[in-house]
Structure formats: structure tokens, C-alpha cells
Design goal:
The complex is a heterodimer of chains A (about 575) and B (about 400). With about 575 residues, chain A is mostly helical. Chain A has helices at about 1-5, 10-35, 50-55, 60-90, 90-100, 110-120, 125-130, 150-175, 180-190, 195-220, 225-230, 240-245, 255-290, 300-330, 345-385, 395-405, 405-420, 425-450, 455-465, 470-480, 480-495, 500-505, 515-520, 525-555. Chain B is α/β, with parallel strands linked by helices. Classes of the chains: A mainly alpha (about 575), B alpha/beta (about 400).
Chain lengths: ~575, ~400
């Protein structure tokens, strides 16, 4: 009876936990954008902040960069994932690739970007490996590779991280689609593997993973840490500019930052709109292509390209992390030496206390936020299922609000709100703030597999006199073990990677591996970054390994459930 | 009348609770015991972080004050934080009890009444501070008036890799000529980064026949004329910079890896001892040395300030006072630890205290106080702000 009264309320509570802070924070951003910041002695409304922002000559380029980098990196990531799954799923190579890519998902963006920058820069690891023997360089060439004006290295840095992410999401979703029989039928009809998969399975998988794709797009458009490390800086992307304005000692600049945040918001909405239109365009062309009945003339070469690209992602991240590991033990390491002069433990000894404390904080915050998010999400989805609550597409849009609004836009406003209601700063509010970002990711990861569950299983169980609760606990959740664990791992990774919420809402008093690593990143000390980057990677790696391992162990004698 | 007495009785303990009087040092010490001080300080340098941790151990031993280093990427974050707190009416227990601060951040906070004070000149160790020889009573020409206390001196030095560049340079003009002969081998942090902006100020101070015009605030009338030589200089320099000026290092410390990677041969630093420390930590090759220009280089002091709404003002003052102690100053000056310049007047110290300073091995790449030469004053902050803005529109949006 209790559950009956409580369960229907869960969707409202969940929405409130996600939307409330964002709306309050946005309110706190809109006011300064129109010139109202009483604490700095400024009273609006006025359009001056926007005028000041538009007067910055770098604005068109910064806006262009945000949109271009977001769309390009998302499109390329999706293409690689589609090619690799179409061309290789079910093969032995695919299993190997899956094992290589999945752990890379856990590598925090900042750590991956740092490793990647060291690989590709003119004085980087690749250049060192070839110098001076092959290249003849005894000094690195003066080439603009990292931070190039077109953001190509930033796009590459995002792609190598988003491919593993989309791949894992697609793998979690694929259990809900009957791929094996589709593949058999199209192959029986004479289609080559890749073409047949693209024509039959891809549309089904895409429908399940499109929300994570939007998330990737929004993330790529507004990311700050990767943009600082790999992105252009004359000018930088709009998000980086907003953060720069936020931290200007002239308090009046916060008005301009708020205006920039609103511009960023509209860019994100515009890019999402463009993506939705492109979905229709691709659909139309795709239908025409399916209609031609082509069996796949270029399959062989396309498959190879897909494999090469996926391997490039896997190797870039792995070698990047390997370089972080070497830096963390490095003595003096000059160009063009392939390895340091000597290996030392001093770097680790110096940072051992700090990293362990930060690790404890990271794990505590991440687990509480993730468990809360999982409980709320499963409660919501079950309520929706039992009481036939229909989630409209508008409802889904609300779910996206925390991910659509650039963090820099609403976090300072949120900080003020929390102080006003007496929550103060500290661990509790930080967990609450993390929940705002963890919840949507957990929900998005879990919702589609949960809804796609075959309800006839529930009907059968009910016919055997199982109560709705028993159906949930004994049938549905065990069958969904893999997507649930995946969602938990995603939630933890999201929490581990949070920088701005931890810094702003924690009042700087909460030190996680990420806040420490990013603080160090500004100083460019690669040895310290190596130590913290590795610890940060480990903090997110373990949950993902468990998400893969546990279902394999639990369902070792239930073959049909291993991918479910 | 009766009510007034009650009212007075009610008010007086509150007034006593409000702020510890800096002049009554015993009361400050008593109140500080058991307090936790959250010191917001830039956390990008491992050596600085280690030094702050040591300060924490010492004040805990001697005064029972717990010190927590809150690591910032940018000091302005702390300014923003105190501002948000004021906005929210959080007037008595800030998340921040002390900030490592100077220049424009200090000017902004002092201007907005966000600081506690005056307290600095009432601290016992103030008597040891070199008020005459060091710029500790003005901060980028802004009068300090006791709202922050100094703890380190910084001065611009140029960092060169003598393996590639044997000779020092005597002036900015010499740097220009060297860059022409060696394109792509020099860079500076991207303004508005403070070290990058300092480089611009250093250029201006060095090439102006009479830099005293920079002591007064910039005006619309004189700004263009005074800065014209700077832009001419940079227009000539930029094509010869690392990456032809299409990319810049983000911060000052990000310059050291570039030298270690042999991407550049010359860089600047605001800490005369940082290069020696970096060599000791394997971050720079042993061939690195430092130099200053013939006419001297810009210098300034690092301070700590206490927000008006700190809940641990007594504890913060104890830490601020400890930072000015001979023990802490000598440790900060040791290049194996930190390599920061001291704010103390050597003549005010006892013989033993002075011996500790004299006994320091400053390191291979550190200049002696005599070699550091003349310290040039920081221009008024209004120059830095306008120059940095102008730089951004001229070179920061080149694409």
C-alpha cells in the first residue's frame, strides 16, 4: 500500500531534483545577462552585457568553433561506431575491439586529452620515436598541430573518447534489438555483412541510442577542459571564453559571461535542431538507398576503414594513458629522448597523501550520487510501467535540461540559491549537485533498455501469481542486470569527471581527483598530472570493468541474458 | 532607560564576538586556537602546494590552527565566491578565510568592501618587514592600507636554455633582434594571463624613454600615444614567435615544459628562483640560466587577504603573521623548497636569523639579490587591464 502511494510521486521528485536546480540557476544567469547584479552595484535591465559581448571580435569565430567542433566530432564518432558495429559485430575481431575500447570509456576526458596532446605535438611521443633517426629533427619543428585554428586536434581528441562511449551505449541497447535474426535474413538475401546491418539493424539501434548522441553533441559543444588542452586559443571556443569571463577580476565581466552563456544555450539548441533535421534527411536518403537493393559493393574496403579508425581511437587513448604513466615516474625527459633519463618514485611519494584523500572523496560522492540516481530512475520507470504514465517527448526534453544548459550558465546561480536556503557548502550539496548531472545520464542509459524489456515476461510471471514487486525484483531487474550496471558505471564516470559543480558548490573545500588534476593542469606539471590522471582513470575504470564482469559471472549459465 | 540598558547588555557581547582586534595579539592567539582556516591559493604548482602544507603543519603545532589549502586555478574564483556569498547574505561564515592575492583581484575586492582590515600593520612580525626597499605598502600602485599582508616578493626574470642560446639579452630591443635571428624560439603566456600581461608591461617599461607616466591611471587622452610603441614592437615580434603567434602557452608554468621539450629557448618567469627549483625537480635541463634586463625588471609582492565574512579571522591573522616570520621566509626563499624572494628587512633580524638566509644555496640558475638589480614598479592596474584587452583584440582573435 505504501509503495502504491509513494511510487507514483517518484517521477515528480526525480524531475524536481534535476530541473529545480537548473531553473533556479538559469534564473540566476538571466538576471546578470540583462545587467542586473546588485552585489556588484549593477541594476538592470539593460542590453549592455550583450552589446559588450558582441563587441568582442572573436565572438563569430568562437561561436563557429563551438558548433563546428560539436557537429564534426559527433558525426565522426557516430560513423565510426556504426561502421565498426556493422562491419564486425559477432566476429572475433569485434570481441577483441570491444574489450579494447570499453575500458577506455572510463578514462576522464582531461586525462585522455593530455595524453593525446603529448602523442601528437611536434615534440610529442610519436615525433620522439621517429627523431632524429627518421625525421632528422634534433629540435622539434615549429608546427601548429595541437591548438590548431580549425580545432582538428580537439575534434580528434573528442572522437577518441566518444567512440568508446557510444559503443558501450550501443552495446547496451543492442540486446533489445533482434540483431541475430535480422543479420541472418539479410545475409540469406545476399546482402554483405556491413550493408545488411546498416540497412536493417542500424535504424533500430539508432532509435535506442539517439539520446546519448544528443548528449555527446551538447557535451562536445560546451566542453571546457578538453578545449583548453587541445582546442584553439586565438580565439578559443565560446565555452572557454565564458569561463574566462567568469573568472575575470572585474566583477562586471560576469554580466558578459551570463550573456555568453545564453548565447551558448541558443547555439546548443540550434545545433540540436540541425541534427534533428539531418536525421530526417539521412532517413530519406537511407530509405532510397535501402530501396535500391544494393548488396554492398564496397563492403570489404569500408569494413577495413572502420576497423582502422576504431583501432586509431583505441591506440590513441591507450598510448596517451601510457605516456601519463611514464611521466608520473619520469626524471628529466627532454626532446628527442623516447624515454626519460631515469625513472623515479619521487613524484608518486610527493602526491600519495593527496591522491588517496581525493580518491576517498571521489568514491564517496560518486557512489552516493549514483545509487540515489539509480533508485530514482528505476522507481520512475517502474511507476511509468505500472501506472501507464506516458512520458511525452516534452517530458524527455525536461530530462535533457541539465545536459543542455552549459554548466557555467547555471552553477553560480545555483550556488547562490543553495546558500539562500541555508544548505551552505560541503559534501552534501556537492552530492546533490552531482546528482543533477548523474541522474539524466543514468536515466538516459537505462530508460530505453528498461522500456524495451519484453513485458510478456511480466505477464507470464503475474500469471504464476507473482506480485508486481516480485516481478520487478525477481524477473525484470535481474534480466536488466547488464544495462543497470552500465548505467551505474556511466553515473560514476560522470560524477568522477565533474569539475565545475565540485568546485563551485563545494566552495573549493571538496577536493576530488578531478578538481586536483585540473588545478594542476593549469600549471603544466606533467609529472603531477600523470599521477592524478592515472588515479582519476582508475577511479572510473573499476566500475566499468565490473559492469562487464558481473553479468558474465552471474549469467554464465544463461546465454540469452548475457547481452540483455 | 531600563530598556536601553538591556539593549546595551545585549549588544555588547555581540560586538565582542564580531571581529578580533588585531592590535590585541594575545586575544587573537587565544581566539585562533582550534580554528580552521581555509586558504584559497593558486594550486597549479606542486612546490607551492608543498610549502603551504608545511605552513599548515607549523601553525597547527605552534598555535593550534588547522590550515586547509583550497587549490584554485584562478584567484578570481575566490573573488567570485565571496561576491556570491555577499549576494546571498552569508555575512559571517565564508567558505574562504584567506586568499593569496595581489593586483587587480585585490583592487576589486578592496573596492567592493569584501575585505577584513586594516590588520596587516598590527601583526607582530610587521616590524621585520622591509617597508623601505620592497613594494609592500602599495599593490600595483593601489594603496594597501593594511587590508592585506605581504609574504613573498616576485620579480620578472628571463629563463634561457644556454645550450641553444649562450648569451643573455640586455633589453627588449635585443630580444626583438634575437627573435628575428631565431624565429619560433620564444613565446609568452597568452594575455590576459597575468604573466603574459606582465611581459607586455615589461616591454612597455623597457622601451618607453620615461616610464613614469605609467604610475598614474591610464587616460583616454594618453593611452594610445603611450602604448603605440608597444604595438609596433609586438607587430614586429609576433611573426617570429613560437607557432608564429597562432597559439600561446596558457600560463607561466606551462612555459617550462616547452623549454624541456626544446620547443623554445627563452621564456619569462615571475619567480627568480623557480628555474633552479625546476631543475632540481627534473622539469628543466641543467643548462638553464636566468637573467634580467640592463635597466632592471618589474617586481611586486604576493599578499594574503582575509574576506570580510571569514569565520576564522583570528586564525587567518595567525597564519598571515607566521608567513612573515623569519622561519617561514627563509624556507620560502630556499630554492630547493620554493625559491620566493623574502619580504623581510635583513637588518631587522637577529644575527642567527640572518645567518639562515645567508646560508641558503640559491641554486645554479638563481641570480643573487645584487644581480637582480633594480626593481621596476608595477604600472597602475588600469594600464594592465587596457593593454590586455587591446592585446586580445589585436592578437588574441587572429583567426
Amino acid at each position: 500500500m505504501k509503495a502504491r502511494r509513494f511510487l507514483p510521486l517518484l517521477p515528480m521528485i526525480t524531475l524536481l531534483a534535476m530541473i529545480g536546480p537548473v531553473l533556479a540557476g538559469l534564473y540566476g544567469a538571466v538576471l546578470p545577462a540583462f545587467g542586473h547584479l546588485p552585489a556588484a552595484g549593477l541594476f538592470g535591465p539593460s542590453l549592455a552585457p550583450f552589446e559588450a559581448l558582441f563587441a568582442w571580435q572573436g565572438l563569430p569565430r568562437a561561436m563557429f568553433l563551438s558548433v563546428w567542433i560539436g557537429l564534426a566530432s559527433t558525426t565522426i564518432s557516430l560513423l565510426i561506431v556504426a561502421l565498426i558495429m556493422a562491419g564486425w559485430s559477432g566476429t572475433r575481431s569485434f570481441t577483441v575491439l570491444e574489450r579494447m575500447l570499453s575500458p577506455l570509456l572510463s578514462v576522464p576526458h582531461a586525462a585522455a586529452a593530455f595524453g593525446f596532446a603529448f602523442l601528437i605535438s611536434p615534440s610529442g611521443w610519436i615525433s620522439r620515436a621517429l627523431s632524429p633517426s627518421v625525421t632528422g629533427w634534433d629540435r622539434p619543428p615549429d608546427l601548429l598541430i595541437v591548438q590548431d585554428p580549425w580545432g582538428l586536434s580537439m575534434i580528434a581528441g573528442l572522437v577518441i573518447k566518444e567512440v568508446p562511449f557510444l559503443m558501450l551505449i550501443a552495446l547496451a541497447a543492442i540486446g533489445q534489438v533482434d540483431t541475430k535474426r535480422s543479420a541472418m535474413i539479410v545475409q540469406a538475401l545476399g546482402y554483405r555483412r556491413l550493408t545488411g546491418w546498416l540497412k536493417t539493424v542500424f535504424p533500430l539501434v539508432y532509435a535506442q541510442i539517439k539520446f546519448p548522441i544528443y548528449v555527446v553533441l551538447v557535451y562536445a559543444m560546451s566542453v571546457v577542459d578538453v578545449a583548453v588542452i587541445l582546442g584553439p586559443n586565438t580565439p578559443s571556443t565560446l565555452s572557454v571564453q565564458i569561463v574566462k569571463l567568469m573568472s575575470d577580476p572585474d566583477l562586471g565581466m560576469r554580466l558578459q559571461a551570463a550573456a555568453g552563456a545564453l548565447v551558448q544555450l541558443f547555439l546548443v539548441i540550434g545545433a540540436l535542431g540541425f541534427w534533428l533535421i539531418m536525421e530526417r534527411v539521412v532517413r530519406r536518403f537511407g530509405l532510397a538507398w535501402i530501396g535500391t537493393g544494393q548488396r554492398g559493393k564496397y563492403d570489404t574496403i569500408t569494413r577495413q576503414i572502420g576497423l582502422v579508425l576504431a583501432l586509431f581511437c583505441a591506440f590513441s587513448v591507450s598510448f596517451g594513458i601510457a605516456s601519463l604513466a611514464i611521466w608520473s615516474f619520469a626524471g628529466y625527459w627532454g626532446f628527442p629522448d623516447f624515454l626519460p633519463d631515469q625513472f623515479i618514485l619521487k613524484n608518486w611519494m610527493r602526491h600519495s597523501d593527496g591522491t588517496l584523500e581525493a580518491l576517498g572523496e571521489t568514491v564517496l560522492i560518486g557512489s552516493v550520487a549514483t545509487l540515489t540516481a539509480l533508485a530514482l530512475t528505476i522507481g520512475c520507470l517502474e511507476a511509468e510501467y505500472r501506472y501507464k504514465l506516458r512520458v511525452t517527448s516534452r517530458g524527455m526534453l525536461l530530462l535533457y535540461l541539465p545536459l543542455l544548459v552549459p554548466q557555467t550558465a547555471f552553477l553560480p546561480g545555483l550556488q547562490t540559491l543553495m546558500l539562500n536556503v541555508g544548505l551552505g557548502v560541503g559534501r552534501g550539496p556537492v552530492i546533490f549537485a552531482h546528482l543533477v548531472f548523474v541522474l539524466p545520464y543514468v536515466f538516459l542509459s537505462l530508460a530505453d533498455p528498461f522500456r524495451a524489456w519484453d513485458a510478456r515476461m511480466g505477464t507470464i510471471a503475474a500469471a504464476l501469481r507473482a506480485s508486481p514487486d516480485r516481478v520487478l525484483w525477481s524477473v525484470r531487474l535481474p534480466m536488466l542486470l547488464r544495462p543497470i550496471l552500465t548505467a551505474a558505471a556511466v553515473g560514476l564516470a560522470v560524477s568522477v569527471g565533474q569539475y565545475l559543480p565540485t568546485l563551485l558548490i563545494g566552495g573549493g573545500r571538496i577536493e576530488t581527483l578531478t578538481t586536483e588534476a585540473v588545478a594542476l593542469a593549469s600549471g603544466g606539471d606533467r609529472r603531477a598530472i600523470g599521477v592524478y590522471g592515472l588515479m582519476q582513470t582508475a577511479a572510473a575504470l573499476v566500475p566499468f570493468s565490473l559492469a562487464l564482469l558481473i553479468p558474465a559471472i552471474v549469467w554464465r549459465n544463461r546465454r540469452g541474458l548475457r547481452h540483455g | 532607560m531600563k530598556y536601553l540598558t538591556i539593549l546595551a547588555a545585549l549588544i555588547s557581547p555581540m560586538a565582542a564576538l564580531a571581529d578580533p582586534p588585531p592590535a590585541d595579539w594575545d586575544a587573537v592567539l587565544a581566539e585562533a586556537k582550534g580554528e580552521t582556516v581555509y586558504w584559497n591559493a593558486w594550486g597549479g604548482s606542486t612546490t607551492t602546494n608543498d610549502f603551504l602544507a608545511w605552513v599548515g603543519e607549523r601553525v597547527s603545532e605552534d598555535y593550534g590552527v588547522t590550515l586547509e589549502h583550497v587549490k584554485l586555478t584562478d584567484t578570481a574564483d575566490a573573488v567570485t565566491r565571496v561576491l556570491s556569498e555577499k549576494q546571498a547574505g552569508q555575512n559571517d561564515d565564508s567558505a574562504i578565510d584567506m586568499i593569496w592575492i595581489n593586483g587587480a583581484n585585490f583592487a576589486a575586492m578592496k573596492d567592493a568592501d569584501l575585505l577584513f582590515g586594516p590588520y596587516a600593520e598590527q601583526l607582530p612580525n610587521w616590524a621585520l618587514v622591509d617597508v623601505e626597499g620592497k613594494t609592500v605598502q602599495t599593490d600595483f600602485t593601489v594603496p594597501v592600507e593594511g587590508y592585506e599582508s605581504p609574504w613573498a616578493m616576485a620579480q620578472v626574470v628571463f629563463v634561457q636554455d644556454t645550450a641553444d642560446m649562450p648569451e643573455r639579452l640586455g633589453s627588449m630591443q635585443a630580444l626583438q633582434e634575437w627573435a628575428q635571428a631565431n624565429p619560433g624560439r620564444f613565446s609568452y603566456p597568452q594575455p590576459p594571463d597575468f604573466l603574459g600581461t606582465t611581459f607586455l608591461k615589461q616591454v612597455l617599461v623597457d622601451i618607453l624613454p620615461d616610464p613614469s607616466v605609467l604610475e598614474a591611471p591610464a587616460t583616454d587622452e594618453n593611452y594610445d600615444e603611450v602604448t603605440a610603441p608597444l604595438w609596433a614592437y609586438l607587430d614586429a615580434l609576433t611573426p617570429n614567435l613560437w607557432r608564429e603567434g597562432k597559439a600561446y602557452p596558457a600560463t607561466g608554468t606551462a612555459m617550462f615544459p616547452l623549454i624541456a621539450d626544446d620547443e623554445v629557448d627563452l621564456s619569462i618567469s615571475f619567480s627568480p628562483g623557480a628555474a633552479s627549483t625546476a631543475i632540481a625537480n627534473f622539469e628543466l635541463p641543467e643548462t638553464v640560466r636566468t637573467f634580467v634586463l640592463d635597466k632592471g625588471t618589474i617586481g611586486n609582492a604576493s599578499f594574503v587577504a582575509i574576506p570580510y565574512n571569514s569565520g576564522s579571522k583570528a586564525g587567518a591573522m595567525v597564519v598571515a603573521n607566521f608567513l612573515m616570520s623569519p622561519e617561514a621566509q627563509a624556507r620560502a626563499q630556499d630554492p630547493a623548497i620554493l625559491g620566493y624572494g623574502t619580504v623581510l628587512n635583513m637588518d631587522a633580524l637577529s644575527a642567527e636569523e640572518r645567518a639562515v638566509f645567508d646560508g641558503l644555496d640559491l641554486g645554479v640558475a638563481t641570480l643573487t639579490p645584487a644581480e637582480l638589480g633594480t626593481v621596476q614598479a608595477e604600472p597602475h592596474p588600469s594600464w594592465a587591464v587596457r593593454i590586455a584587452d587591446d592585446w586580445v583584440s589585436r592578437y588574441g582573435v587572429a583567426q
